[in-house]
Specification:
Layout lengths: L1 E6 L6 E6 L2 E7 L1 H4 L9 H10 L9 E4 L3 H15 L4 H13 L4 H12 L9 E3 L2 H10 L6 E7 L6 E9 L2 E9 L4 H11 L8 H7 L8 H7 L1 E3 L5 E3 L15 H6 L13 H29 L3 E5 L6 H10 L4 E4 L5 H16 L24 H10 L5 E2 L2 H13 L4 E4 L13 E5 L6 H9 L9 E5 L3 H4 L11 E4 L10 H4 L23 E7 L5 H14 L3 E6 L11 H10 L4 E4 L2 E4 L19
Parallel strand pairs: 1-4, 4-5, 6-11, 11-12, 14-20, 16-18
Antiparallel strand pairs: 1-2, 2-3, 6-7, 7-8, 9-10, 13-21, 14-15, 15-19, 16-19, 17-18, 20-21
Helix pairs in contact: 6-13, 7-11, 9-11, 11-12, 15-19
Length: 611
Amino acid sequence: MRVLGISAFYHDSAAALVEDGRIIAAAQEERFTRRKHDPGFPTHAVEYCLAEGRTTVSEIDKVVFYDKPFLKFERLLETYLTFAPRGFVSFAMALPLWVREKLFQRQLLTDELKALGGGVDVSSRLLFTEHHLSHAASAFFASPFDEALVLTMDGVGEWATTSVAMGRGNQLDVLREIHFPHSLGMLYSAFTYYTGFRVNSGEYKLMGLAPYGVPKYAQLILDHLIDVKDDGSFRLNLEYFNYCVGLRMTNGRFDKLFGGPARKPEEKLTQIHMDLAASIQVVLEDVVLRMTRALARETGAGNLCLAGGVALNCVANGKILRDGQFGSIWIQPAAGDAGGALGAALAAYHVNQNQPRLSPMGRDAMRGSYLGPEFSQAEIERRLQAVGATFSVVDDDEVIDLCADALAQEQALGWFQGRMEFGPRALGGRSILGDPRSPRMQSTLNLKVKYRESFRPFAPSVLREDVSSYFELDVESPYMLLVADVAKDRRVPMTDEEQKLFGIEKLNVPRSDIPAVTHVDYSARIQTVDRATNPRYHALISRFKQKTGCPVVVNTSFNVRGEPIVCTPEDAFRCFMGTEIEALAIGNCFLRKDDQRQGLKLNYEHAFTPD
């Protein structure tokens, strides 16, 4: 049985193909259209999934959309009626779109798929799942567990903003929900907005900014904005928010509480913004930990799965792990709305069609999240020749050796290998790599390669067998969704003068023997690399270790700020030529910047709208 899952029309649209319970392919539309967070119908992603599965629209048994539009419209109407006449402007803006498109998504989806399938009508095979069920299914059915508690937290689906389910075998039973407008995701996004970042894409920046600040506003948030019970259930004080009735997340009362208006995008970050980031991060962690502790006591579950946008908060995830209430936790790497496409397909197959699960046998079903397109060596060479690239074709061992040498010489290396990752993280398929020992690498990558804010940290990729030698972690973290501290014997103590520094002044103080991946609070967002899951990436880091003694590399996504992660060899070459990346490996093709024709050079610094 083949099931095609689709998420679309809000942000991060995607498609996923599941065949007899096995995940065949999954990809976000943005990677093909080169439009960040593309919300449109995922035409290219669907075409890719069908091609990867060697199938057609006519051979798909079920097509599943990741939420229920009528329930969302019900929320829109009820919210307006509750707050009327406030909110008329936003309601009036939303209503035409709903009447024109969203209420008739069955027809819209049918028409789009008919265009892709040569006129085949799929309306009789079209299903809709609830948003949080899609998230929960993406986490549980892809997890390595036969039984687990599933916690989903995001902004909002149809009505649910937080949900708890129990997964057993091929079934998911929803135990309870918290409904809109009370939302932990909305609360965090309100501070994303207030500190000048973009809602639905800038939350990870707020998380990265938090260690520069002091959580001096945490109690103010708990006193005025959110009422949290011992079991983690909560209600927001809606007097401080505008998202129910307006076009802003916060309002004048929120501004007054925190001493001024929201920061404008690109405006200078000050200590107050860092302290606000630290404060909302502490509050988020407090709520989530109360919730997970209560759920562990109540259910006795040994395993926990996490999904929804809040599950991308890897600092909170690390706190849950260290809290020790669950024996194991597993987080869906595409935890946001893109992953809803995969969850919708899995929910339809297992829950709706009552099909048995494949035995997890202790491993997850995501296959490293390498579920996107890949290119043969011959195709890579043809594509690079077509764009005028100068490259050498070398064997497997030599490409590893050349790349390890480039890293050891503190060069920024573009690494394009195998299948593209599904989800927001680059995991060694479409990555820019660097030497973590270099005190200059963090600044170089941010300012000269990524063209992004200087405060943002970089993640380490570390050999799984060496993780506990460098970090206070001894479990797998293949999807870069857990934060842990750098091991104490790797740290460099700060002097008294350095301790007095505040905020971004701390940025250039080396804090360990791997300074490029050590955040200002000695933490790191860790990816463990397993030989079985990504042998080529494992071989590269192993060779780097042979040459330098260090089993860690800097890993950031292969793109610049505002650009989707590269998908094709042409995307990679353009990014290479538009930035100060010095070496590039695509398959067995090795490219040096100095060898390229000057006329092919691009300027990527302002090529994309900042996110």
